TrEMBL record:
Pfam families associated with the record: Lactamase_B_2, RMMBL, RNase_J_b_CASP, RNase_J_C
Organism: Methylobacterium gnaphalii
Alphabetical keyword list: Exonuclease, Hydrolase, Metal-binding, Nuclease, RNA-binding, Zinc
Protein name (Swiss-Prot/TrEMBL): RNase J family beta-CASP ribonuclease
GO MF entries: exonuclease activity; metal ion binding; RNA binding
Domain of life from the UniProt record: Bacteria
Keyword DNA-binding set for record: no
Entry keyword annotation includes Metal-binding: yes
InterPro entries documented for this protein: Metallo-B-lactamas (IPR001279), RibonucZ/Hydroxyglut_hydro (IPR036866), RMMBL (IPR011108), RNase_J_2 (IPR042173), RNase_J_b_CASP (IPR055132), RNase_J_C (IPR041636)
Gene3D superfamilies named among the record's database cross-references: 3.10.20.580, Metallo-hydrolase/oxidoreductase, Ribonuclease Z/Hydroxyacylglutathione hydrolase-like
CDD domains hit by this protein: RNaseJ_MBL-fold (cd07714)
Length: 557
């Protein structure tokens, strides 16, 4: 049997079998006393009808929490929420230093860590190309092109070999803002010898190569130039290249750019500090809107994913305090709806069209490009790096399965199919899954973090589907019912299929059930509650076809 005393292992706790909540662990050493590093600590957006009241999701870190004394550091590949968004929420469970580039570090500080009650995260700045030694690991950030500045792959050097964790990347020779992905840098890593490539799978099902940000910039310039009246552009607030492209297009057309939305304001401030908006004219705040002629306005708005409280949704509902659109104005969705957000985005588009506003999306114009590689780009990455093993990550089951076939077609010796919680031994020996550890989701419920197994979620689903009946009954020590039971229904229709009022049916069912119980039975509160509960659910099923949740309370007098 292979010794478990000195191993290099990989354990994804999020971001594998799903898109979002990225959190990956690398460990070295004996099974009981490994040293660990984490790559990324992101969140996901619920966007699921089966999670009523839940907006944000986070990876379950129980596995590494139990080993936090051996966690040497958390390395952030880039500042997108699915890679950085859980830091403020979960860092206190780990308390390891967080390493990030200047842009990611400042965005973390302004967006999350400036909020009331945020933890005092130990943030350390790391520079691409710099080699940092932490215990048995040597870490190097390798710049890549992506839809946010300062995105990086992570080269992890160990005594067992080199692992390359790509993070999110693409090939773009003209990215408008941020780095290109250097063939020379990745060839050099391939020449060094790569034990395992842990690679982005998001666009593996798409042929060809992703268009460049500069092509989107050219389209935006044309669409703004052709617009007779106001132009509003909604995009991911973090896409600095898109912000710069809109600002430059507006300047060329003699228009003024306004930013509307707090997330957009924060990103613009950080981008300015880091030099990514040098040479761009000042971007005005949203309250300047009313002072500018209609044909001179270009608005950058948050809310490209249909978020109800974001600027774009409020404008579409005509309840934004500073910005309004009228018939003949043009809105450009410089984005693509993340799976699960299509309905909310579609509702906004429909509202805008009803207002007479022209809406342009990527269905008709090149107003958005992905930040992830298509197949031709991935061919290049595999040709440059020539890994001995490949582990597809950052994708749903479809993407991971297709990436596995793709990697084999590139001649990779070993392809390991991972899921969240897979403990993969990378060395010594052939890389393989050797164990499964605890992994899952945590939900942000208002200000409380709850486990995925918390009773609140299934109970809310039930309430959403069938409503609730509340009954209060007063019974004295002799088992006599005092007065008339109080009955209320919520979430049920007013009348059943026969036209009967459901609240009357509930009241009659309660009275009949109580009358059928002996005084001795009525002195047992639990027996009364159970009998009334069963009777109501049965009666509602007969006249309505559903069984509501029941809350029966017996007050002993």
């Amino acid at each position: 049997m292979t010794s478990r005393q000195d191993e290099l292992v990989f354990v994804p706790l999020g971001g594998v079998g799903e898109i979002g909540m990225n959190a990956a662990l690398y460990g070295i050493g004996p099974e009981k006393s490994r040293k660990w590093i984490m790559v990324d600590l992101g969140m996901g957006f619920a966007g699921e009808e089966g999670l009523p009241g839940i907006e944000l999701m986070f990876p379950d870190l129980t596995f590494i929490e139990e080993r936090k004394q051996d966690l040497l550091g958390i390395f952030i590949t880039h500042a997108h929420e699915d890679h950085i968004g859980a830091v403020s929420e979960l860092w206190s469970k780990l308390k390891a230093p967080v390493y990030a580039t200047r842009f990611a570090k400042q965005l973390l500080e302004t967006r999350r860590l400036s909020e009331p009650g945020a933890p005092k995260v130990v943030l350390k700045q790391i520079t691409p190309g710099q080699r940092l030694t932490l215990g048995p690991f040597e870490i190097e950030f390798v710049p890549v092109s992506h839809s946010i500045p300062e995105s990086n792959a992570v080269a992890i050097r160990t005594e067992h070999g080199l692992v390359l964790h790509t993070g999110d990347w693409k090939l773009d020779d003209t990215p408008v803002a941020g780095d290109t992905t250097s063939p020379e840098a990745f060839r050099a890593l391939g020449d060094e010898g790569i034990l395992a490539l842990v690679c982005d799978s998001t666009n593996v099902v798409r042929e060809g190569r992703s268009p460049s940000e500069s092509e989107v910039a050219a389209t935006l310039k044309r669409l703004i130039e052709e617009a007779p009246h106001r132009v509003a552009v909604t995009t991911f607030a973090s896409n600095v290249a898109r912000i710069r492209a809109v600002a430059e297009a507006a300047q060329a057309c003699g228009r003024q750019v306004l930013a509307v939305g707090r997330a957009m304001d924060r990103v613009i401030d950080v981008a300015k500090e880091c030099g990514y908006l040098d040479g761009v004219p000042d971007i005005l705040p949203g309250d300047s809107f009313s002072h500018l002629p209609r044909e001179k306005v270009v608005c950058l708005l948050t809310g490209s994913q249909g978020e109800a409280r974001a600027a774009m949704a409020r404008v579409s509902r005509e309840d934004h305090p500073a910005v309004s659109l009228t018939a003949g104005d043009r809105v450009i969705f410089s984005s693509r709806a993340i799976p699960g957000n299509e309905r909310d985005v579609g509702a906004i588009i429909n509202d805008l069209i009803e207002m007479g506003v022209e809406v342009i999306t990527d269905r008709t114009e090149l107003v958005h490009v992905s930040g992830h590689p298509r197949r031709d780009e991935m061919v290049s990455m595999y040709e440059w790096t020539r890994p001995k093993a490949a582990i597809p990550v950052h994708g749903e089951a479809l993407h991971l399965d297709e990436h596995a076939r793709f990697a084999r077609a590139q001649g990779v010796e070993t392809v390991v199919k991972a899921r969240n919680g897979s403990l993969i031994r990378l060395a010594p020996g052939k890389p393989e899954v050797i164990e499964h550890v605890r992994a899952g989701r945590l939900y942000k419920d208002a200000n409380v973090l709850i486990d995925a197994k918390d009773r609140a979620i299934p109970e809310r689903r039930k309430l959403a589907q069938a409503g609730v009946v509340s009954v209060a009954i007063a019974i004295d020590a002799r088992g006599t019912v005092l007065g008339t039971p109080a009955v209320d229904i919520m979430g049920l229709p007013n009348r059943g299929r026969g036209g009967e009022a459901l609240i009357d049916t509930v009241a009659e069912t309660v009275s009949r059930t109580l009358a059928g119980l002996s005084p001795g039975k009525r002195r047992d509160s639990e027996a009364v509650e159970n009998a009334v509960d069963r009777a109501i659910r049965s009666a509602m099923n007969d006249v309505w076809g559903k069984k509501p949740a029941c809350h029966v309370q017996v007050v002993e007098v």
